[in-house]
Amino acid sequence: MIAVRDVRKSFGGFVALDDVSLEIPDGSLTALLGPSGSGKSTLLRIIAGLEQPDAGAIEIHGADATGVPPQRREIGFVFQHYAAFKHMTVRDNVAFGLTIRKRPKAEVRSRVDELLGVVGLAGYHERYPNQLSGGQRQRMALARALAVEPRVLLLDEPFGALDAKVRTELREWLRRLHDEVHVTTVLVTHDQEEAMAIADHIAVMDQGRIEQVGGPCELYDRPANRFVMGFLGPVARVGDQLVRPHDLEISAEPAGGARPAVVARVVHLGFEVRVELELEGEEAVWSQVTRREAEQLDLAEGATVWVRTAAETAVPA
Amino acid sequence: MPLNTVFGVLCALALARGRLPGKALLNAVIDLPFAVSPVVAGLALILVFGRGGWIDDLPFQVIFSVPGIVLATIFISVPFVVREVTPVLQEIGDEQEQAASTLGASRWQAFRRVTLPAIRWGVAYGVVLSVARCIGEFGAVSVVSGKIAGETETLTILVEQRFQNFNLAGAYAASALLAFIALATLLAMTVINPRREDDA
C-alpha cells in the first residue's frame, strides 16, 4: 500500500496540495483525476520523490519514504513526454536501470529481450528514440520503467502527448499489461473517460484537494458533490437538482411527479438521440435517449412531453 | 584547456539547473570577458596576483609565469564554453535526469551517463571555439606573461616580438604555423557543428 498522509506543498504563493491524504491499495490501478492545476501531477511527483512535500509523509509498503531520494524508492516513472535517453538505443534505454544496478550482462540482455516482447517492440533493439513513433516511445519508456521490477509504477499523463486513436489503443493495452504484471500503478490523467476505462480506483482532485475516492461506477452514480458530478460526465439541471442527462425520464403522458416540457430540438447522433427540452421558468436542459425510445415517444420539435428524474443519482444544485 | 572545459560545464550547469541566489550576477560576470578588453583583464590579474596584490603569498609565481598565462586564457575563453553549453542544457530539460534518478541512478551517474552524452557536441563546439579564441589571444597574455623568451611566450606573442625585432622571416614562419593551427580548428568546427545541431 502507498499511504499519503497530510501532505502539503506550495510553489511560491500557489498551494498545489492542501493537506492531502490518500491510500492506494496494493496491486490496484489507481487514477488521480482532475483538471490542470488540481495538484495531481505534484502528488505523483511527491510519491516518486521528485518533489519534496512541505509537510506530511509518504509511506510505501509500510516504510516511511518521505526523505528517501527517488533512486532508492524502487519505483518506475513514466513521463508525459517520454523522457527517452536520446543518445541511447532502445536496448540501452530499457537496460539503463539494470546497468546502473550492475546486473550481469546475460541477465540484462534476456530481461531487455523479454520486456521489448511484452511491450511489442521486439526487433527494435538497435533503433534510436527519434526513429520511433510517439506511441512506440512511450511503450519503450514503460519497458524501461518495468525493467527494474519496481514495487510501484507511476505514470504522469502517459498518453497525453499521443493522438486520440493511439491513446485509446495504449490505454487498453496498459490495462491488459496491468492484469498480467499486477504492479501497483498510479496514473495521472485529466481525461475522465481514460480514468473510467482503466482504473479500479479513482481519486478526483480539484484545487489541491481530494474531492472523492472510489470505483468508477461509484463516482459516476454517487458523486459526493457538484464538482465530481460535473467532472465525471454531463449534467442536466432540473429544478434544484443535478442529474445525468440519461437519467431524465421522458414520457408522452403525465405521470407522478413529472413536469411538462417543450421539445426544442432533436439531434440524432447515430444510436444516441439528444433532446433539448424547455422546462417552464428554467434554463434549457438536454436529455439523452436511445433511438428506439425517441421513435416510441415520437419526439418532434414543438411537442409537449413530461419529464421526471431518477432521483437516486441526483445531487442538490 | 581541460580546465576551461570543466569550469565552463560547471558554470553552465549552475546557470541552467541551479537555484543560486546570485544567478543573474553570475550570468553577467560570464559575459565580462566579451566586453572587457583583454589587456584590462590581464592587468586585473596582475592586480590580484601580482606583487602587492590581493593574493601575492602563493608558494608559486603566477604573474610572468605559466599559471598566469593559463589563468588569463581561461578567463578569456570560459564564456565560449558556457554560452555554448547553457542553451543545450536548457533545451534538453531535466526530465531525462529525473528519469535516470527514478531508474536508480545517483546524481553523478545521471550526469555522466545521461546529461554529458546529451551535451557532448555542444561542449566540443564550445571547446573548439575557445581554442580558436586562445590561439589568437594576445592582450591579456602579453600583459601577464612578461614575454620572457622561451619560457612564457605564446605563439602569438612570438610573432609580435619577431616582427618588432625586424625578424620578418621568423615572424612569417611562426605566423604560418599559427594560421595552420587556426585552419585545423576551423575544420574541427565545421565537422562538429552539424552534429551539434542534430543533438538539439
Note the topology.
The complex is a heterodimer of chains A (317) and B (200).
Chain A: E1 2-11, E2 14-24, E3 29-33, H1 40-48, E4 55-60, E5 63-64, E6 75-78, H2 90-100, H3 105-118, H4 134-147, E7 152-156, H5 164-181, E8 184-189, H6 192-198, E9 201-206, E10 209-214, H7 216-221, H8 226-232, E11 236-238, E12 241-243, E13 248-251, E14 259-269, E15 272-279, E16 285-290, H9 291-297, E17 304-309, E18 315-316
Parallel strand pairs in A: 3-8, 3-9, 6-7, 7-8
Antiparallel strand pairs in A: 1-2, 1-4, 4-5, 9-10, 11-12, 12-18, 13-17, 14-15, 14-17, 15-16
Chain B: H1 2-16, H2 23-35, H3 38-49, H4 66-92, H5 95-102, H6 107-136, H7 139-145, H8 155-164, H9 168-199
Helix pairs in contact in B: 1-4, 2-4, 3-4, 3-7, 4-6, 4-7, 5-6, 6-9, 8-9
Query: What's the number of helices of chain A?
Result: 9
Beta strand count of chain B: 0
Helical content class of chain B: over 70%
The proportion of residues forming helix of chain A, as a percent range, comes to 25-40%
Strand line-up across the major sheet of chain A: 6-7-8-3-9-10
For the sheet with most strands of chain A, the description reads:
6 strands, mixed
Instruction: Label the structural class of chain A.
Output: alpha+beta
- Assembly type of the chains comes to heterodimer
Q: How would you describe what is shown here?
A:
The complex is a heterodimer of chains A (317) and B (200). Chain A is α+β, with helices and mostly antiparallel strands and 317 residues long. Helix content of chain A is 29%, strand content 33%. Chain A contains nine helices and 18 strands. In chain A, helix 2 packs across helix 3 and helix 3 packs across helix 4. Chain A is elongated. The two termini of chain A are 36 Å apart. The model of chain B has no long low-confidence stretch (mean pLDDT 73). Helix content of chain B is 77%, strand content 0%. In chain B, helix 8 packs antiparallel against helix 9. By secondary structure, chain B is mainly alpha-helical.
